[in-house]
């Protein structure tokens, strides 16, 4: 059996432990060396300088490539550094199509930075097939998607987008941060390049920032390697090691978190104060069937609407378990309020148009006891309802 044949539960272990032939240490060392001795003037070793390659980073890059079924992996200082690098494969005069509900940092990069380099863009709802087809121009080189979307969890048909993009000679890039390779493997569905904010589920503990790219073809891998080395936003070696540590438990963490998310989503949907729950794991959710045709879980992130900003304000004060902060994908449950956090730059009209209502909260469910989480929400909801009765 080779690593390729293992299931992901085994792969997360076998790709991150590499017994050292000299010492027997089972973990790869944190190889903190910027430079490497060269054997002679005529012979060069495998490594020369850490920006171009480092043994610890190699283990991480090979691990994510194996998990995503890709040809080659790359590690970057942040998710945005990975995303910037992916867009730098484009040239002046090129055009990109980007899904409308894209991560805020990606929206900012595409709309405010790429135009300075002569790269044109169109944002479209990639679930609207007619709109997607109409967005192509003769110079469209990439379609960029993210599914499920943030924070309304809309599901995009990856295979269909790939079919349409490839018919127009455009590549497809997919941000797989929300699903992780444990639940969804975009390269298997025809995507050409996968991106991750390693900051989220892959690291998993709200500690480091990291970004990853996995390419399907050798050609695209070579192009990304050139930019990684030329631009130099590589992941620090100590953080490579921490990300490897995170990946060891990725599979058990995301499965536990997703099971908690499903249980909590069902419970939330029954609470009178909750007007709507967005979670692809719920059978009556719009994208449920599509989600389970291309992924194996609804994931660990959900959003729900409790009617008003005032209710949100009270809930945040009364909950004891979830931490109220930005970010997601960690062992602890993280509650965030998109209108004032991730989507604060949008106007109220823009937000409402894409379903980000004033009472909408996003929850990244952690590994705590789900009954404790329900009890915590229950006591908070009861206090909000009691205060409403007094008014
Ligand atoms: C957080 C996030 C990013 C950006 O990653 P950083 O590590 O914060 O730079 C990109 N895409 C998604 C979906 C994210 O959640």
UniProtKB/TrEMBL annotation:
Residues 1-21 have a biased composition (Basic and acidic residues). It is an enzyme of class 4 (lyase). Its EC number is 4.4.1.13. Its cofactor is pyridoxal 5'-phosphate. Keywords: Amino-acid biosynthesis, Lyase, Methionine biosynthesis, Pyridoxal phosphate. It holds the Pfam family Cys_Met_Meta_PP. It comes from the Bacteria. The modification N6-(pyridoxal phosphate)lysine is found at residue 200. GO terms for molecular function: cysteine-S-conjugate beta-lyase activity; pyridoxal phosphate binding. The keyword Lyase applies. Residues 1-25 are annotated as: Disordered. PROSITE patterns: CYS_MET_METAB_PP (PS00868). One of its GO terms (cellular component) is cytoplasm. GO terms for biological process: methionine biosynthetic process; transsulfuration. Belongs to the trans-sulfuration enzymes family. This is cysteine-S-conjugate beta-lyase. It comes from Secundilactobacillus silagei JCM 19001.
